[in-house]
TrEMBL record:
The keyword Nucleotide-binding applies. InterPro entries: AAA+_ATPase, ABC_AA/LPS_Transport, ABC_transporter-like_ATP-bd, BCA_ABC_TP_C, P-loop_NTPase. CDD domains: ABC_Mj1267_LivG_branched. Keywords: ATP-binding, Nucleotide-binding, Transport. Residues 6-247 form the ABC transporter domain. It comes from Pseudaminobacter soli. GO terms for molecular function: ATP binding; ATP hydrolysis activity. This is ABC transporter ATP-binding protein.
Amino acid sequence: MAEPVLDIRRLSKSFGALKATDDVSLDLRAGEIHALIGPNGAGKTTLIQQISGALKPSSGSIRFLGEDVSALDVAERARRGLARTFQISSLTPEFSALRNVMLAVQARQGSSFRFFRDVMTDASLTEPAIAALSRVGLGDRVRTPAAELSHGERRQLEIAIALALRPKAFLLDEPMAGMGPEGSRALTVLLDGLRAEAPILLIEHDMDAVFALADRISVIVYGRIIASGTAAEIRADSAVRVAYLGEPG
Ligand SMILES: Nc1ncnc2c1ncn2[C@@H]1O[C@H](COP(=O)(O)OP(=O)(O)OP(=O)(O)O)[C@@H](O)[C@H]1O
């Protein structure tokens, strides 16, 4: 089998006596959505932060596209194609949707300082940004300030920004959070198509979305992966049902 896009090996992270990530190994393969689920405080965000480079693991390694990236910082991992969206928005509210995406495109291209009016007419920057906005369904909101977008639209915008970075893998931290049922359905369709572009490691509490989308699901409880498998395998796993899906033992 081809080497996974992302390969996490025996990752641990302690905060004092607390093992927030405890000997976690998992991988992300080309074309798939791998969902990571678990109760509040299980260590999902801590794990994503270590993968993105925001947090240094206590031990273990992270391989991305066949190389050990454990010692690289966030910017270098992003430059190599690891795109993360956040639980808490990182948008600039007063900027238009287009300008928010273009900042990301510009960062990727590593272009040196230019006056913004020049940037806004530079097709090499505007075209990929508009394409990313259209892709997520915001083609008619290009000029709208991020502050005037609905909650759901802002989540779409965050995904457009991740897309504009032409990632080799997406790390999505609760993209459905705060979405109504209609928004969640639309986002589910979008993520479904996105996996063809780059595989997705998806942290999500919305179980309808997880079971609809995930090719594989890993369940994390108290920092440890207690089960990993297809949706059907996870549904049938008695340890998962007791520990997470809330069924009596
Ligand atoms: N910087 C930190 N210092 C100390 N403890 C931390 C730190 N960050 C996280 N923790 C603890 O590590 C554990 C895992 O937290 P984490 O945020 O990763 O969980 P989570 O699974 O993402 O939860 P949620 O689903 O609520 O977002 C929690 O007990 C949390 O309190």
